[in-house]
Structures are given as C-alpha cells and as structure tokens.
Specification:
Low-confidence stretches: none
Helix content: 25-40%
Strand content: 15-25%
C-alpha cells in the first residue's frame, strides 16, 4: 500500500510484520485473573457434556477467551476467527501450545484458540438440551452465575463493611429483530429488553435480562431477598440500604425491607396530595428565586400514606425547588428517620448519589457491549449479558487492584482499554521464553509498569 511521500521518501505499508499482537495489555488481564480467579469461578457455572477424548478447549479456556475478547473491544464472535491465531492472546489464556502446532485437525494448525462456531455453540446451548444435542453441549446454569456474581463481591471486601448501599435500576436494551421476549415499551418508544441491575458502588452484583413488558418491582423481590440473606450470612452487623428510582417504589418492596431490617430510599412520583402538602414550601422557593435569580431548594418532611396501596404511613422527603424553567418538585420515600438524618441529607447526599450507578450501566452498554443481544432466544441473550458483566468485573478488578493511586484510578473501562490494553507488540516464542516487545514510544508505558508492579503485590488465589 502506497501512502503520501514524506521527506522525499516513499511510504510503503503492508501486513508482513510477522507474529504481532495489537493487544499487549491482555497480559494485565491475565495477571488480574491469576489473582482474583474470577473467570475460573465463572467457568464452574457451566455444565459440560462433551466427550473428554474429543475436547481440545476446556470450558474455562472458552469462557476466558470470550470475556477477554469483550474486555479488549471485540464484541462480535466473528472476530475470534482472527483472534484464535493471536499467539499473545493464547498465552494470556494459558495455552500450552500458543503457536497452535499440535491441533488435531490440519485446518486448525496455527490457531491455538477456538473459532466463532465453537463459541457460538456455547452461547446457544441450554441446560435441557446438552445431553441430547450433538453440538450444543456446554450450557450455563443461571442460578450458579447469580450466586457467583454476589460471592465475587463479598470476597472482594477484606473486612466487614459498616454499611452497604444496593443500587437497583433498569435500562432499555433496544432490539431490532424477532428475539424472544421483545416487547414494545411505551416509555422508551421502541422494542426492547429491560436489563435489571444491582450494583454496590462500582461492584456489579446482579444482571438479569427481563422481557420488555416486565414489572421491575416484581422481578426484583426474589433477587433482593437472596442477596440480602447472603450478605447477612457473612456480615450480620452490616447495615443495608436499598436505593432506587420511582420505578421500584411499591408497598411490597418497602414492606419486605421493613420486615428484613433493611433501609430504603426510593423515588416516588409526584401527585396532587403530595403537591398540596408542600404548597407553602413551593411558594417560599419561588419567592427566593425571584429575589436572587438563582435556583432555590427547600426541603420538607411529609408524613404520607396512599389511599389504598400502602399498608402504613411512611416518611416522604420533599424537595421544593424553583429553577429557571419554573417549579421542579421531587419526592423520595425512606425508612431512615428524621432524627437520624435531615431531609436535605436524605435527598442530596444519599438519593442523588445513585447517579453514579447510571455511569456504571453506561460502561456496561457502551464499553462492554451488554446490548449485543441479537440471538433469537432470551436465554442466549441472558448469557451474553453475563459475559458482558463478567468482563466488567474483570476490568473493575484491574482498576481496583492495579490502577489505585494512578491518574487512571477513576478511568472508565473504555479509557483503560484504549490506553493500557490496545498496545501493539511483537511476539517471539522460544523454547524457554515468550518475548513480548512493546513500542518504546508508548505514551502510557509508565502507568503500564505501575499496574504490573501493583498486581505482582496481590497474592495469588488458588
């Protein structure tokens, strides 16, 4: 390929560099895995009914290949028909034959890893068919994966926390085919799924793909009960607070929390009764706005009960706000008493901080491709959501264990990928070593070294 001449010299380019990789940072992901064993535990959540004598790729290697691929930006299974030839990718996954010289079939020689067809069969298998289906013989067991995600979070805490906030939320996952479970959603204005998430800080605890017509409040309760029981079993003294928007406000959830000794702060839609109760505060905010020309917030506690749906009176915190566009009242209902925390603190310092969870969901969708739900079955799309979630867990572990104290300590997954993982390298395999030569001009070489040093200081997990 001829390019524009430079300095009187012709510029000629071609793909003849030999064994190279565009993803030298996969070595960092491999170090994170050795110290957390996230993918090892994830692989144990799959049923493998293949014949051992005919198997070249273990479930763990397949799962690791798929998750590493997502973390490195390869959302499409077709990409793995090229990645399977990447020797550095094979080294990171733990292949004993990274050059692919010992493959049983001639057509696979030179490709150490699995291709798209093998990975696709794993995604489309389900538990009820693995014993009979000739090809689809690896299946995910969803309850085990749900338990694994929670256990990984619990294990990441070195000591019992004083308080845990469980952020709950759903988002829309638009679909453009005839996928099982797709429904038109009036609020979002398109056909979609509704993924249900629970985070604690930056840790993902639950990722469940709900049909587009699901009631998130109803689907949340069994998962919330399971999560609370497991947290209580490990940390009996930890305070648990459930935080969510008005989509999760309902008597069933609040009653469960009250019976289980769990606090909550949930958004509540405004109505004529609540607006009437804060009429004085709204007039006060409007008057101050006219005097100052700046947005004004007045907070008020309301003792409130619905006519039919609530079983008791509860504390509602009202934000009577007046901004340039006019009145902007908002309400949240909480089990935290006014003696413990003021109305302002409940709204501004507790409830409004749930916005950080929305950033985590954006990372899932934009950086980890959680919306790549194009298989025909909802079970297959659920597995894709799991793969995306585990890729996020691995990247978060890299951020937590390797990037703390660096300028990228709060970087999002996409930034970490671009700056630390997408580094070109020349790969040379010899009898005793695998040499990985990265560019001397890499602008993030110093951070890469710091991450490597930090990861070496983390104990290995068996």
């Amino acid at each position: 390929m001829m390019f524009q001449a430079s300095g009187g010299r012709q510029v000629v380019a071609c793909f003849d560099g030999g064994e190279m990789s565009s993803d030298a940072g996969v070595l960092l992901l491999a170090e994170v895995e050795r110290r957390t064993r996230i993918l090892h535990e994830f692989a144990r959540c799959f049923m493998d009914s293949r014949s051992a004598g005919r198997t070249e790729h273990t479930v763990e290697s397949l799962v690791t290949q798929r998750v590493f691929g997502i973390a490195l930006g390869y959302e499409d299974l077709n990409d793995h028909d090229h990645l399977r030839k990447d020797q550095l990718f094979a080294v990171a996954i733990g292949s004993k034959d990274p050059e692919g010289k010992k493959r049983s079939r001639e057509r696979d020689v030179g490709s150490a890893l699995a291709g798209k067809s093998t990975l696709n069969r794993m995604e489309l298998s389900h538990v009820g068919s693995v014993e009979d289906d000739r090809y689809k013989r690896i299946a995910a067991i969803e309850p085990l994966i749900d338990h694994f995600m929670l256990s990984t979070f619990l294990r990441s805490c070195e000591e019992e926390p004083r308080e845990i906030i469980l952020d709950v939320d759903t988002t829309d996952d638009p679909v453009h085919g005839e996928q099982e479970g797709r429904y038109f959603h009036g609020y979002y204005g398109h056909y979609c799924y509704l993924p249900l998430y629970i985070f604690s800080g930056e840790h993902i605890i639950l990722a469940r793909l709900l049909p587009g017509n699901a009631d998130a409040k109803t689907d949340l309760l069994p998962h919330l009960g399971r999560i609370v029981r497991n947290i209580r079993n490990k940390w009996s003294g930890t305070r648990i607070i459930v935080r969510g928007d008005a989509g999760f406000m309902g008597d069933a959830i609040m009653s469960y929390c009250e019976e289980a000794g769990v606090d909550y702060v949930l958004g509540i839609a405004k109505n004529s009764v609540l607006l009437k109760k804060i009429r004085g505060s709204m007039r006060k905010a409007a008057r101050r706005y006219r005097e100052t020309g700046k947005a004004v917030r007045v907070f008020q506690d309301v003792n409130y009960r619905t006519t039919r749906s609530w079983g008791c009176r509860r504390r509602v915190v009202a934000k009577a706000e007046h901004i340039e566009g006019g009145a902007n009242p908002r309400f949240v209902v909480t089990s935290i008493s006014s003696k413990e925390r003021s109305a302002r603190w409940i709204y501004e310092d507790l409830y409004c901080q749930r916005g950080d969870m929305e950033n985590r969901i954006k990372e899932q969708q934009l950086d980890m491709f959680s919306d790549r739900t194009s298989t025909g079955s909802i079970a297959g799309n659920q597995l894709r959501l799991y793969f995306s979630s585990v890729a996020y867990m691995l990247m978060h572990a890299l951020r937590r264990l390797g990037l703390t104290g660096t300028e990228m300590a709060k970087a999002q997954c996409g930034t970490i990928r671009t700056k630390l993982l997408k580094i070109g390298a020349l790969v040379r395999v010899t009898a005793r070593k695998i040499w990985v030569s990265m560019p001397a001009a890499c602008p993030y070489a110093e951070i890469f070294r710091k991450v490597h040093t930090a990861l070496l200081g983390v104990p290995l997990r068996n």
